[in-house]
Amino acid sequence: MKILKTLLIILSVIIVLFTLFSWYIGLFTNVEVEEKIEGGYTVVGKDFVGPYAKAGKFMTEVDAELTELGIKSTKGFGIYYDNPRTVAPDKCRSYVGNVLEEKDYERINELQAKGFKVDTIPATTSVVAYFPIKTNMSYMIGPIKVYPKLSKYISDKGYKMTSSIEIYDVPNKNIIYIMQYK
């Protein structure tokens, strides 16, 4: 009987700890969707074709290359062009890298000469949601929590999505999910 009681206590502690950890990493975060003007970013990065799950590793490599060149950014980005539910994972297209800070605008030509793509994410009315960055798991949990809500909102409004953008705002500990539409 004493062993059963001990096992129940241990199991209860594990369940409580797992629930607290799940709450902390955002598993129970309520995602709010809104329409607002979002964008106005100058971004530098490279195109990536392949499963979106592998884009993060590529983004880290791009960030390392930029850091080597003295370009330091506190925000990363990913623009995802294809719906992974309708496009084969190895054919999914994205453009990933860093949000360029104003102090580095004078280096745009140099960055382009070194093979980087420099572009802008225009400020436009978009469907937007936020998800907190608590751990590296936030980058995996965020899409699972956010994209169904964004997709439903866009579908309910009858919008046609043109691109899906994620801004990884490290200083503010947020991932900004932006769906531009027409």
Instruction: Count the E strands.
Output: 8
Reading side by side through the largest sheet, how are the strands ordered? 1-6-8-7-3-4-2-5
In the CATH hierarchy, what is the class of the largest domain?
Alpha Beta
Describe the biggest sheet?
8 strands, antiparallel
The whole-number mean of residue pLDDT values reads: 91
What is the ordering of alpha helices and beta strands? HEEHEEHEEHEE
* First and last CA, distance: 66 Å
**Radius of gyration, CA atoms, in whole angstroms:** 20 Å
> What is the 3D shape?
globular
Number of helices: 4
Uncertain segments are none
Please, could you describe this protein's structure?
With about 180 residues, the protein is α+β, with helices and mostly antiparallel strands. Helix content is about 35%, strand content about 30%. The chain contains four helices and eight strands; from the N terminus they run H-E-E-H-E-E-H-E-E-H-E-E. The chain is globular, with a radius of gyration of 20 Å. The model has no long low-confidence stretch (mean pLDDT about 90).
Keywords summarizing the entry:
Multidrug-efflux Transporter 1 Regulator Bmrr, Chain A; 8-stranded antiparallel sheet; alpha+beta; 182 residues
What is the gist of this entry?
The protein is of the alpha+beta class and 182 residues long. It contains 4 helices and 8 strands; from the N terminus they run H-E-E-H-E-E-H-E-E-H-E-E. A hairpin with a 4-residue loop joins strand 7 and strand 8.
